[in-house]
Amino acid sequence: MNLPDESPLDNPVWFSLTEHQSNYAIDYGHVKFYHPDYTPFGAFINHQDTSAAIEKHAQLIKEFFIVGDQPKMPVHFNPPKQYIGLQMIIYNHIDHPITEPVVELTDAHYDDLIELIKLVYPEYFKPKTQRLGQYFGIYKDGKLVAATGERMQTKDFIEISAVITHPEHTGKGYAKQLIAHTASGIFNKGKIPFLHVDETNTGAIQLYKKLGFKTRRTFSFWKISS
Q1: Which is nearest to 36 in space by CA: 158, 163, 151, 125?
Q2: Fewest CB atoms within 10 A around its CB: which of 39, 67, 88, 216?
Q3: For 41-64, what is the mean pLDDT?
């Protein structure tokens, strides 16, 4: 495999909104955000003064995140709250058996997906997040019990996101199977899977390591509230 240049992953929101997902961008010059219907993330380059862009974007969405370096805030805003995440990447197909039927989640499954997300993952998932990539799920007795999908996308990389299992169905290996399935689809598109996980989520980090993901770097997610 010819390995792609990883440098866009040092600013994945910016390069996603510049390369593959520019149609979803709100562009404030050297500061870009996803449209708030898709995700609450933004980023900047060139040590830009972000205060004006943040003030404008706060008129569209109450709470959002800058991913990367600490942003400069408007004077009347509260300081941003910092969360530290790990960025993990994998270059080899995941050798894990998929024994459950995996369903691609379309608009017809939207209500089921939102119901599951509200249990464990409400802050980052917006009304149109599902349209950023393919999403997959596992159903049991007609109920969606696990899901995952694709979010940020650059020219060479696709982020695996929204790895969710219903609290009553954890420990059954559903997440591993969905991650393996999603990663395989990303490789088949000629791209490389990566993901982000909060540094305090040690259980998920160990799961990703067992599947073959390696930690590439840490990232700051700066939560901004107007």
Answers
A1: 125
A2: 216
A3: 95
For 167, what's the count of Cα atoms within 13 Å in the CB-facing half-sphere?
6
pLDDT, one tens digit per residue, over 162-172 is 999 999 999 99
Smallest CA-to-CA distance from 86 within 216, 222, 223 is with 216
Instruction: Please state, in angstroms and as integers, the Cα–Cα distance from residue 149 to each residue in 49, 81, 132, 135, following that order.
Output: 33, 27, 9, 4
Tokens at 211, concatenated: 């599947």
For the CA atoms of 54, 59, 65, 66, the dihedral, rounded to the nearest 10 degrees, stands at -20
> Taking the model in full, what pTM does it have?
0.94
> What does the pLDDT read at residue 124?
79
Average pLDDT over residues 2-7: 89
The rounded distance, in Å, linking the Cα atoms of 115 and 111 is 6
- DSSP assignments along the chain, one per residue: --PPP-GGGGSHHHHIIIII-GGGEEE-SSEEEE-TTT-SEEEE-TT---HHHHHHHTTT-SEEEEESSPPPPPTTSPPPEEEEEEEEE--S-------SPPEEE-GGGHHHHHHHHHHH-TTT--TTGGGGS-EEEEEETTEEEEEEEEEEE-SSEEEEEEEEE-GGGTTSSHHHHHHHHHHHHHHHTT-EEEEEEETT-HHHHHHHHHHT-EEEEEEEEEEEE-
Question: Nearest 10 degrees: CA dihedral of 183, 37, 113, 179?
Answer: 10
